[in-house]
Design goal:
Blueprint (H helix, E strand, L loop, with lengths): L7 H12 L3 E6 L19 H12 L3 E6 L4 H8 L6 E4 L4 E4 L2 E4 L7 H11 L10 E4 L4 E4 L5 H21 L2 E6 L2 E6 L5 H16 L2 E7 L5 H7 L4 E4 L9 E2 L2 H14 L3
Parallel strand pairs: 1-2, 1-10, 2-3, 10-11, 11-12
Antiparallel strand pairs: 3-4, 4-5, 6-7, 7-9, 8-9
Length: 266
Amino acid sequence: MTIVRMDVSTVFSALADRRDGRHLLLLLDFDGTLCPFDPDPDNVHLTGTVRTFLGSLARKPASTVGIISGRRLPDLHKRARVAPEIYLAGFHGLEIEAPGEAFIHPEAAAATPLVRAIAMEMHPYLPSLPGVFNEDKVFSIALHYREAMAPVSAAAQERFLDCARADLTAGRLRLQPGACVLELLPGVAWNKGRALEWIRQRVEQLSGPTFSVYVGDDVTDEDAFRAVGPHGMTIAASDRASGAEFRVDGPDEVERLLRLLDRGPG
């Protein structure tokens, strides 16, 4: 489904009108949403202005802020912990750090031996696949091919899927495609949408009914879009994502939205 891009001020106005005084629960993806992509994931960091807006919104009594990312929580913590009030969900929601509470899915580590074996099987092929590399997330493995030529990218994905086919078929692993990345995750029924629901339940216990807003840029965010439900707002930060109601263009426009929210009431 194609989502028509709208001016950020229009999106903000719609959000303000529909919020209707409810507590704002603002949840965002990290890579591609709050930060531009980089071929090397280690080079991705929040800008100072985005840090300021997120921290300010998180400290307002009428809003709660969280980040839900495919990155592992320790990695996300050092890149995105800008205020103790912020909720951080890593590993596609399988691990969550909340104010005064932490959660890790009991089966988060279940696939570790499987992904280790697949990483070892893939390793000899990587030198012949320029622009392709494996990212070891301990509990999962991600194949990145953003810098690869199309034939190399296709060959790398085919080899990666061949290595994982038996475990995917048996349900021991599940495949999570993303923007120029394929990730093998534990085959458990948990995703960014379930993480959103977990966070929302805790926020509503403290603050009452919420107006939930989720901003994401990729297919990995579509479970979260669905979890928002009819009484919130979903915003795609690129044309890679479908299922959102509104679309803005990339981290620069997400930053503009954060600025408007920070200047607004509450």
